[in-house]
Specification:
Layout: E1 3-5, E2 18-22, E3 27-28, E4 36-40, E5 44-45, E6 52-63, E7 72-79, E8 86-87, E9 94-95, E10 101-106, E11 117-124, E12 130-140, E13 145-155, E14 158-168, E15 171-179, E16 185-192, E17 201-208, E18 212-222, E19 227-237, E20 245-248, E21 257-261, E22 268-273, E23 279-285, E24 293-296, E25 303-310, E26 317-323
Parallel strand pairs: 1-4
Antiparallel strand pairs: 2-12, 3-12, 4-11, 5-11, 6-10, 6-12, 7-8, 7-9, 7-11, 13-14, 14-17, 15-16, 15-18, 18-19, 20-21, 21-24, 22-23, 22-25, 25-26
């Protein structure tokens, strides 16, 4: 007889290594012979684990029965395709470590390029021996940058960013990117990184605030050009500039729209979006006018639209209007 089981879960840890783990009900040897065996039918596949660069250990827990130690033997088999397995030299009929508790066997000498698939067979010759919590651990590549935090704080018409790293390897620079819809992105700045560091480093950057709900991404570049998004945060800076915009007539026929403000501004960019969020019209004005009234002819089809006004003092003022 032998007991077969399959992997029940995969677990990847971000620091120092990871564990491909599987668990079943406690397996108990009932007869004093090397006849009871436990074999994995769904083997570990190292290429399915992110950043894995080699095997590390076979890990399990054991509770020995009343008999002498050395009554558990282990064989590790490898495969190129996950179907046909063969014993791996130096890993056949290995005696398990003595005693109860978590145990492991070093398998780092197994070449994962030759054996991308592994499975383990446990042979029990100890009455009331219990085995549980099996797993293969692997070695992985260290993260180029370990980020501790990324925060923002609104201050008048500015936004202050701060981020800290616990360690850096081969890091070139950081980039702060803003977006409101994850479709259109704007790069605020690139800041040089430390390169190599094992100590906590704090970075700061101040930018002009983008009013309203805005997302900010912290992007990190390696010296070889590789990059990753380390974190995404959201800020909602308020426009403290006392100004309101008005669109009339509303509803209107789409041929002429009048935009009015209650105070003087010098320039303006007006953008019109349809109900699906697509930009359909864009107008740029160097002088808004002494009376703070602007007329423009967008020639819009019937529907619901959003007008956005952006200028050096006002950012992203929105107003919905209807064309019928």
């Amino acid at each position: 007889k032998y007991v077969k089981f399959v992997w029940s879960n995969f677990k990847s840890e971000s620091s120092g290594g990871g564990l491909i783990s599987f668990s079943v009900d406690n397996i108990r040897a009932e007869a004093p012979s090397f006849f009871n065996s436990i074999i994995t039918t769904t083997p570990s596949y190292i290429s399915s684990i992110q950043n894995a660069i080699g095997y590390d250990k076979l890990i399990w827990n054991q509770t020995l029965g009343a008999k002498a130690a050395g009554d558990i033997k282990i064989t590790i088999q490898g495969s190129t395709d996950g179907l046909s397995f063969s014993d791996i030299t130096d890993f056949v009929d290995m005696p398990a470590p003595d005693g109860s508790g978590q145990k492991n066997i070093d398998i780092s000498s197994i070449d994962h390029t030759i054996y991308p698939y592994l499975r383990a067979i446990f042979y029990l010759n100890n009455e009331n021996t219990i085995l549980h919590d099996f797993g293969f651990s692997y070695k992985n590549t260290p993260l180029p940058v370990k980020l501790l935090s990324f925060t923002s704080e609104c201050e008048n018409d500015k936004i202050n960013f701060a981020w800290s790293t616990a360690s850096e390897i081969n890091s070139d620079c950081f980039e702060i990117i803003e977006t409101k819809d994850f479709v259109n992105f704007n790069s605020l700045a690139k800041i040089y990184a430390a390169g190599f560091s094992s100590q906590t480093i704090i970075y700061n950057y101040q930018a002009k605030a983008n009013y309203g709900k805005t997302y900010y991404q912290l992007k990190q570049y390696d010296v070889d050009g590789k990059w990753e998004i380390l974190s995404t945060i959201v800020a909602n800076c308020e426009d403290n500039f006392d100004n309101e915009i008005y669109v009339y007539p509303n509803p209107n026929n789409g041929n002429e729209i009048i935009v009015s403000l209650n105070s003087i501004i010098d320039d303006a960019i007006i953008m019109v979006y349809d109900a699906a969020g697509r930009l359909v019209r864009r107008f740029e004005y160097k002088e808004f006018g002494k009376e703070n009234i602007l007329k423009f002819r967008p020639k819009l089809e019937p529907g619901i639209y959003v007008l956005e006004l952006n200028n050096s003092k006002i950012k992203y003022k929105y107003l919905k209007f209807i064309v019928n």
